Amino acid sequence: MLDHRHDDALLPLHGPDRHPNVIQELLGELYASFSSVREGRVADYIPELAKACPDDFGIVIATSGGRIYEIGDTRKEFTIQSISKPFIYALALKLLSFDFMASKIDVEPSGEAFNAISLDSESGKPRNPMINAGAIAASAQICDADPSGAVDLLLDYFEELAGRRLTINEDVYLSEKQTGHRNRAIGHLLRNFNIIESDPEPALDLYFRQCAISVTCHDLAVMAATLACQGRNPFTGGQPLPHDITVRVLALMGTCGMYDFAGQWLHDVGIPAKSGVAGGVMAVIPGRLGIATYSPPLDNFGNSVRGVAVCRQLSAGVGLSLFNQYSHTDATIRRSYQGSQRKSRRWRSDRELQILAPHRDEVRIIHVQGVLDFGGIEQLAAELVRLSNDVRILILDLAHVTECPLESSGLLDRQLCSMEDEGVEILLSRAGRLPLVSMPDWRITDRVSTYEHLDSALEAAEDQLLSWYDTVAEGPNGHGSGAIEAHGLLQQLCGEHRQILVEQMSLRAFIAGDFVIRRGDPGDELFLVRSGSFDIALDVKTGDGHSHSTRLATFGPGLCFGEIGFVAQTPRTADIIATKPGECWVLHRNAFEALSASHPDVVIALLKALTCDIGAKLSQTSVQLTLMEHY
């Protein structure tokens, strides 16, 4: 079974134990408005369909985010009938090819009833896959592709689409088979034109079976949402159809899905849809949601009266028509600011800060959001071109990009390569939505650095600036001689005090991965970094309920850490881990207490220096927090 949904996902998002939901309330209003409609007649040309209750009525909306809203008879089974047609055509495309299917079935609206014998006079091809002739031709190709296993193949496929195992209503199947003389005539005509290349009876049998698959309104909404998500089932995560096939199927649903009412439907409602004579209507808002209704009474076109009314009202009332979409001006750029307005969590020495200060605005940080389709990339490219003359390092943060379609991703690759050719260093952070790995043709992949976190990219940008503008000769550790006398904190002490303090400190070595401090340890030691790199890490619980280790700060040569717990004599509140091999001078509390007795003036000088250091860190932290509210 493929149904991986939690029970809560199967329930309406409104009830006695939930707060009111406006979407659920909307469905309630639609249900109340159209329940009393008595127009239309239940289909009776198939005896079993005539048994349907005309009062049955259900509405379901399934979103691309995996949420369900439903009301009415949404779990009552009925047969899928012609709503199977877009899915059957999609399966034939998946098993065979676009070119092959084009040789068998056209894609032009017929303007005729669903059961019309609508074949091209010369080629014999059905006008489109949404009428009976086209659906029978598509079933024939599936049958020929797997003669002995076509039914199992069909049911396995519909299981992926609906997220649960579906079955065939044997009574309806037999009723359709026994009375389907017109469809049988269509099948033999197709054989006459060699559209069906073998005995048409197995194909007709498969067609009657597919129309008799039992579904609920809920099932149809999930299937519609799968089409809305470019062939990915948002409830199971499965991918029964590739995106290029769903694009073609939705186009056909838009132009042919409602038979000879299709043109009026597209004009009035503007949503790709498909109806079935058992009373189902399925509509798709690409990228957003699927809609399904169930109500057996049909109009003269064979479409559910209540289903058409619900879709029409949704289109007009809440703006779901594809032709009534608002522009998203500049929505792609979430935030854009200069490097001076956000610093990394790596604490820099005074010398490094002096070097960085006049050059920070050579870095630009741009946060991108939404779908990077043609329109999104056009907005981003315009911003990049506007800034290119003033930027030496560009950080693109892509955490809020929801998708980068393959069709348009090449444009982004070209834009980034063009900037890189002009000398702009490009750093990508949180690029999980971009097809960097799956797109071997991307030139930029081998030319830029990618970072899991934005802070890592900011640190790399600062390091790049230092490599360009730091003209001071570096020692073997990359930051001067590493002598304790050169340590920024100790430079605030006079030479005599510094010498006395140094004699009380020990040099301790660490390898990458060592825990220098663990959360809960007593605050008995003060660390001054001689070489290497040390991170403060804290476990933070995020909105998904999981704990993630987060870097609060990084300390390198010339900086100190552990001072707050040391001065306040409180337990450690975070872990400190060596990320690169290095050494620290360590002052233990016992030595500090001994100095307090023997050289109180040294201790006072040290405490003054630590107070200044803590104050500077708090000041920078406050500025960064304030800036983050705006950027």
UniProtKB/TrEMBL annotation:
Residues 353-429 form the STAS domain. The keyword Metal-binding does not apply. The keyword Acetylation applies. InterPro entries: Beta-lactam/transpept-like, cNMP-bd_CS, cNMP-bd_dom, cNMP-bd_dom_sf, Glutaminase, RmlC-like_jellyroll, STAS_dom, STAS_dom_sf. Residues 489-595 form the Cyclic nucleotide-binding domain. Keywords: Acetylation, Hydrolase. SUPFAM superfamilies: beta-lactamase/transpeptidase-like, cAMP-binding domain-like, SpoIIaa-like. Substrate binds at residues 82, 132, 176, 183, 207, 259, 277. It catalyses: L-glutamine + H2O = L-glutamate + NH4(+). Its EC number is 3.5.1.2. GO terms for molecular function: glutaminase activity. CDD domains: CAP_ED. Homotetramer. Belongs to the glutaminase family. This is Glutaminase. It comes from Cyanobium gracile UHCC 0281.
